[in-house]
Design brief:
The protein has 12 helices and 13 strands. The protein has 394 residues and is an alpha/beta fold. The chain has a single domain, classed as Aldolase class I (TIM Barrel, Alpha-Beta Barrel). The longest helix has 14 residues, at 194-207.
Amino acid sequence: MSRIPPPQDCTANSAHNSAVTERVIPLADHRYRAAVPSVPASARPANGLLTDTLGRPLRDLRISVTDRCNFRCSYCMPKAVFDKHYEFLPHDSLLSFEEITRVARIFVSHGVRKIRLTGGEPLLRKNLEVLVGMLAALRTPDGEPLDLTLTTNGSLLKRKAQALKDAGLQRVTVSLDALDDTIFRRMNDMDFPVADVLEGIDAAERVGLGPIKINMVIKRGTNDHEIVPMARHFRGTPIVLRFIEYMDVGATNGWRMDEVLPSAQVIERLNAAFALQPIDPNYIGETAERWRYADGGGEIGVISSVTQAFCHDCNRARLSTEGKLFLCLFATAGHDLRALLRNQDGRTYADDEIAAAIGLIWQRRDDRYSELRGAMRPDETLGERRVEMHYIGG
């Protein structure tokens, strides 16, 4: 049995009741509340101009292809909870590659230009390169290919890099929290050696899966002394190292504010070792604040969702392993798109109907968890249990 407390009974979002009543279908594998989206009787065709209540467009779709991982990092999947007794989703609950591609195509019609495959650990999904090939064939309404990328812990990257590149994957982001092997093994809690991840990064670079980004989650007192060694290791390469504040995602990682090292302090430490200069974002909605080495040694970034919320231009949606749509990394409830894809109410839904349902969901979106958290006292909470990061990806 899972040690995570059972979810609350499924209930429709009360904010939606005044417009269109949503039907709620409880399913055995629901880990979190999810309403079956309403399909409007009539709707305008998707035109790529969809915005939410705060004027934010839909541009980035993150798709979790598995809820399983071969690491047990304490900030994501602590072993005390995700042990041998934990029940992961059964295979028939997962969206098929065809279902993922179908829903991705619908999101592209609404303006999505970037798709990131996540997990759990996405490379654990069998034949993932087949899905990559299917998604790589998608085109925007103006005929452009998507920005297709993947986030991985790097453990299987050495053996999979060439197949992913051949299938059409453009680049990868690798999670790496330390170069010191003892610290790395302790943080992944599966005694996995850092050398194997570094070999995976080298393999990805050789086959052209770049520019590669490295994500390092910083926990004060655990791996913050690895900040400068990590920067020194990747300096002078095309690889972009990004430092991420330890976040209060989910309900199982024992998050405490005193374990957060603010990005401003990360920059102070790096600037003391290597002179840095700020640079402009690549695009609106970019999560990382960018810096470059003054001597031309490359680029680093910091992601500060705890101390410097960037909700105001967040343009990301997340699709869980079994087809729930979440509008925020810190969400407490989702929208069950799988019910529409699989016609669970006995009705067949066309793509334009599903597109209309997704459009209605996004138009009502008002999520801004990090901004709200920033205005609270340290001992306050926003109430309901949030989804776990391994379930919807980072």
